[in-house]
Design goal:
Blueprint: E1 3-4, E2 10-18, E3 51-59, H1 63-69, H2 74-77, E4 83-84, H3 85-106, E5 113-118, E6 121-122, E7 136-144, E8 150-151, E9 155-158, E10 161-163, H4 178-194, E11 201-210, E12 215-223, E13 230-236, H5 243-250, H6 260-272, E14 276-283, E15 293-301, E16 305-314, E17 318-327, E18 336-346, E19 355-365, E20 372-384, E21 389-404, E22 407-421, E23 426-433, E24 436-441, E25 452-465, E26 470-483, E27 490-502, E28 545-556, E29 561-573, E30 585-596, E31 599-608, E32 619-624
Parallel strand pairs: 3-7, 8-12, 9-12, 13-15
Antiparallel strand pairs: 1-32, 2-16, 3-4, 5-6, 5-7, 9-10, 11-12, 14-15, 16-17, 17-18, 18-19, 19-20, 20-21, 21-22, 22-23, 22-24, 23-25, 24-25, 25-26, 26-27, 27-28, 28-29, 29-30, 30-31, 31-32
Amino acid sequence: MHIYGSKLVRISFLVAISFCATAPARAFDLFGLFKKQEAVTASNAADVVNPVNYSASIQSGDAVLDELLTPNSVLIKEQTTPASGTTGLVTRARIDQKRLLGALYSEAYYGGTVDIEVNGQNIDNISLDTDLSGKFVNVAIKVSAGPSFTFGRPFAQSNAGAIDLAEFGIVEGATAKSSLILSAEAKLIKKWKSEGYPFVRISDRTIEADHTTNKLDVSIQLETGNKAAFGAITVVGNTDVNASFIAEQADILVGQPYSPNLVSRATRRLQEVGVFDSVVVSTAEQPSADGSVEVNIEVSERKPRTIGIGLTAGNFEGFGVEGFWKHRNLFGNAESLRAEASIGRIGQGGISDLDAHTGLVFVKPNAIGPATSFEAKTSFDIINSNAFSKQSGKLEVSLSNDLRDDLTVKGGIATEYAVVDNGITTTNTSFLYAPFALTYDTRDSTLDPTNGWYASLLAEPTFAYPSHATFVKTSFNASTYYTVDPDNRLVLAGRVGAGTIFGTDISNVPTDRRFFSGGSGSIRGYGFQMAGPLTAGGKPQGGLSFMEASVEARYKVTDDIGVVAFVDTGGAFTSNMPGQGGSIYTGYGLGVRYLTPIGPIRADIAFPLNKIPGQPQYGLYLGIGQAF
């Protein structure tokens, strides 16, 4: 959705409808310490028995260390809620001692101490019979970090021989952070599992801190177990989706050598069919009688039917309404059918000025094996854009195949009958074309990526009747994302795109098949289709080629709010060589992002560097997800 112009305001709504006890604190464990633990607290002071109000502070003499330790302190985190008597306060203090020592270990301080005093008295000397209720006390958390430890000579061995721990991040003389030990163990397990050992485990670990040399000696014993093949596959949790389909779509074959990548791939493929709320694919912790590793697939099904309703409003675009109905599991094998319709530009003229769309889409996963999907769709459209008005009907069938986890190919054949009026002539044309797409995607998110690449190559050989014109429409788009800081607060994003139509001249290419630039997701600051060749009357003409580029700096101010600065440039051209037969248009601007679990809600304001006479001086764009 976009808003363009100095006076336009457009609002959209979309609705989809588908038919405490607290845990006790855990004992301290160096290698399981950093799981979140909650103190047992009441919701307000009135609910606390024998409330003890207090203030707490960490005193280490090192501001950096104080900042590290503070998030790990239950006393500080819960000080707005009174403790329940002396026992409750001392319990919080005991938890803090263990948590803060663990935090020191995480930074390689293995000789550190944590002493906690209540009104100047060490908690070890406070009797639980002491009555502190109704009083306000001061809690001092006194921390002495001690010296920083380094790794001594590490040792690791499996039943297959010695292991060089330096390859896994534990290097003699390096700062001995406990997180490096945890990471090394995880990497050891991952390495042997990737080589076909599903039952590998750490069978023994010895960690000794030498306080005379400030060295930490680490010894790890790895038990690899035997290599194994996948065994029996069990499916649980399904009610309407066939278990045979689930097992086939997972694409794990009995007798196939074990690989954790195949387990991950099975999870992803089952999630992508769209019929499950959750998918868990796991393997047995012990070998079966024949030495194989059994596979368990546990699913939770979504409700099969969904209805969606959307509303739009704008003083330039008028009112609009849209809706869809979808069945996710027609015949038990995740076949989906979606019926959709929309009407736009209500109130902007007569019936002939409305935009309208109806469509029906059928998708069958696992069409020719688990990696393939069949799609058939038909649609009828009425479009009234800046460049042309069009009435059309279209039918398309296609097959897609996942060549790899990050590479997908899709091809099909389509036919369309269209009546197009570009303001000068009206044409009645039938098209037969074969769309083809190759997509590469390593992004960590589709709506708010912070790293990775996305690239698509599109080709559409086309035959038009009755003109008998033949041409091929091609385009390439790529975007990349780079996180500057470890907290993913500053992300730099870039996008490039180009396309060309070859095989005929521009007069033989119907207006609706040409390239256009301008608008949201293209060159912001310009109206939809306006960043390109214009007719004498100021209407978009379209071109045989286009090229575009965008850069964005995205900064997360808080966990909920982000800001963006961007520059877009490019245009459409009458030549089939991008950059020739037209002008370059550049827009720049700022944006705000409201970050939600379903993706960022964005609002961008953009200004044209090359102003077009008679066009607004800025564009305002709203949408869900980043611009690219």
